[in-house]
Amino acid sequence: MVDGLKIEVCRADGQKCPRCWMYAGIPENPHGICDRCAKTMLDSTPEDFAKNIDPEKFEAFRVAFVDLQREIKACYAAQAEKYMRR
User: Which of 1, 6, 32, 55 has the most CB atoms in a 10 Å sphere around its CB?
Assistant: First the structure.
């Protein structure tokens, strides 16, 4: 114990990422994915994430994955545009 040291626990700001459970999200991201997971998803292909998916369901997964990548890119673009207006 250190004299004068006080530790406080409080709830983190933002949304909990559904992929890694960290509390740090991209503003305006409807899925609440954090920056680290968003980068992983943008740098990956659907095949990287689909190792255990039934081959019959892969096409639907691929389409959803690509749509999510598009949404993440749009969120980053909107964030950059707001920053540039300042």
Answer: 32
> What is the per-residue pLDDT for 63?
92
- Provide the phi-psi class of 14: left if phi over 0, else alpha when psi is between -120 and 50, else beta: left
30-35 long-range contacts (CB < 8 A, ≥24 apart) are 30/71, 31/68, 31/71, 31/72, 33/72
Count of residues in the chain: 86
Query: pLDDT value at position 25?
Result: 58
CA distance 11 to 69: 29
Task: Give the whole-number percent of the chain exceeding pLDDT 90.
Answer: 10
* Helix and strand counts by DSSP (H, E) for the chain: 3, 0
